[in-house]
Structures are given as structure tokens and as C-alpha cells.
Amino acid sequence: QEKEKQLMEKNKDVNETKSKMDVAKSELEIYNSQHKNAQTQLREAHANLESVIQKQTQRKSEIKSIEKELPDLKNNLKKAEADLEKAVQGEAKLVAQGFYTLDSNKFRKLKGKQALNIFFQCRGNVLEALMKQKAAGKIPGLYGRLGDLGAIDDKYDIAISTACGALDHIVCDTMETAQTCVQYLKKNNIGAATFIGLDKV
Question: What highest taxon heads this organism's lineage (predicted)?
Fold first, then answer.
């Protein structure tokens, strides 16, 4: 009976040892799994780092290339702006010389401030010259600029002035008077304008 008791105690010790070994084995498997995951993450991190370094190197190369091209691009832009300015001014001068007329809304969309000044100065010169002829009694059938012949409510002024280019047209009693105005402007090389003859309205 004493031997059985000793045997049972030994079996108990063996079972406890096996249990501890099983726990240790499970923990070891967990650690191994975590180690593998950590190695995988480390490899991915290295790969991502290399990718970032490559992209950074590529971006630096692109930036250097752009920096080299930038002076030429700036020069080309300045040249294009200068060419545009010359073209706009040339077009405005043609209008001022009476070769053809352009609606003022078109000039508002152009970027040449000097061209705008030329255009509006030309328009003012045309109207001023014609009104002097009217005051002298040489063109009695001339009434003036359409936009000056009526009042526009302040709250609608900007909208109507922007949308209605015809406000800059010059009103005459007849188309015959309008033709007289055109001939006067051409003869004196003052400019050009668009006329409205009330006999044709």
C-alpha cells in the first residue's frame, strides 16, 4: 500500500511535469509565431522604406529637372505675355484707326490693361468729336450714346452695363445722319463706332 501511494505521487509529479511542458510548448509556439510575424513585418518595413527612398530619389531628380527648365519656362511665359500684349494693343489700335469695330465686352475679357485704356480712350474721343459737331450744328440729328440717353437703376447698373454692349452705340435720327457721322470719323481718322438710326428701329 505504501508503494502504491508512492507510485501515485510519482504519477502526479509526472502529470504535473507533462502539463508544464505542454504549457511551455504552447507558449513557445506562440513566441515562434510572433517572431515570424515580427520578421515578416520587418521585411515589409524594409521594402516600404526602400520604396520610399526610391520615390524620394525620383522626386529629387524631377525637381532638379524642373528647376533647370524653370528659367526657360519663365522666359517663354514672359515672351508669350509680351506677344499677347502687343497683339491686343495692335487690335485696339486698329479699332482706334477705324478699320473695324469690336464690342467692348470682348475687350473686357482681354488681359491687356493698356489695350483697354486705348479702347475706352478711342470710344471717348469718337463720342466727344461727334458731340462737338452736333454742338456746332453740323450734325443736328445726332442724339448721343444710347447708355447716356436714359437712366438705369443703381442696383441693375452693373448687370445691364455688362450684358448690354449696345449701350455704347450712338443714336441718330436717321441712318443718313449715321452715315454722315461715319464719313466724318473716317475722313478725320478719329475712330469707329456703331450707330442706331431711329428710322430703322
Answer: Eukaryota
CB 167 within 8 Å of CB 194: no
- Alpha helices (runs of H) in the chain, residue ranges in sequence order: 2-96, 104-109, 113-135, 154-163, 175-187
What secondary structure letter does DSSP report for 136? T
Nearest CA among 139, 111, 114, 107 for reference residue 126: 139
- The overall pTM is greater than 0.85: no
Cell of 144: 448721343
Q: Which is nearest to 191 in space by CA: 52, 98, 75, 83?
A: 98
pLDDT in the model for residue 137: 94
Question: CB count, 10 Å around CB of 146?
Answer: 17
Alpha-carbon gap, residue 55 to 47, rounded angstroms: 12
Residue with the three cell numbers 524631377: 62
